[in-house]
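For the sake of transparency, this paper describes our internal protein records without simplification. Because each token names a local backbone shape, the row as a whole describes the fold. One such record is reproduced below, unchanged from the form in which we store it.
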Amino acid sequence: MNKKTIFFIAKFAVSVLLIWVIAANFEIGSAAERLKDIQFIYILGAFIIFIVLMINNTFRWQIVLTAIHAHLPFAIAAKILYIAIFFNQTLPSTIGGDAFRMFLSRKAGVSLKGAVNGVMLERMATVTGLIFLVVVTQPFLLARIGDNPAKYAFPALAGLAVLGIAFLMLLDRLPERFQTWSLVRGLGHLAADTKKLFLSPKYAIQAIALGAFGNILIALIAYMAAMALAIDVSVLDCLVLIPPVILVMTLPISIAGWGLREGAMVAAFGFVGVAEGDAFVMSILFGLINVVVALPGGLLWLKGGYTRKDIEDEIAEE
């Protein structure tokens, strides 16, 4: 059994354990009854928002690629992104959707450097936008949770994000005697591309703004899930509480955020009076919506004729 398989099993165990702990310790029986009376008009609304989210995220990726002098046509970039979402959301794998995105970008004509750095920097822009959104909405969050020590966590994360970007920019300063190593050369290329993106106000502002807007759209999808279940929350509640939940989900210790999301949503929505069971069921529906809307990406993948082994072999070679 290789390390990747062990890592996957560990992440799967974390997801199952967290969901089991929540289900075992909170009354979810009555909340589950809400699933029988789902208002599907709100599910349709969630699907429409997802389409807007796809357009937003494709533009964000294209901005990053343009900044580092790479290019993908919008339709091809959207197709590749959709396939990546499919693998992130629906298929347990030791290879994440980002690897598929890099692989398919290369097949579409993007250089290895552009494919790898484009995905990595797009991810960084997304997380930076998320942290910015959390910091901006923090006054509204504190109005709901009171004077909580957590108020220091998010500004600290914003500072760490800035330091992280600055650190990436310095990776090309490694001693010359190490420049013969392919890994060091790759880090140097990443540093150069980080500067191209984040030292250009035009590209940096657009990428980070679209990162923040994408997370607002995710919060609206969660709101649609709440409305579908007739759970009493407001749009503002979701705009304030969902970004910290998404931030928790970025921790790479579970499968597609399952378990982490449920625990975070139970804790977050408890501050606005949502019962634990209701928040748990809302989180499950939110996760299922993400899975269902991602399924067409699998059809796009099958149409391309590639297999996961193709990607595993290419990653092993490079």
Remarks:
- DSSP finds 15 helices and no strands in the chain.
- The CA atoms of residues 311 and 317 lie 10 Å apart.
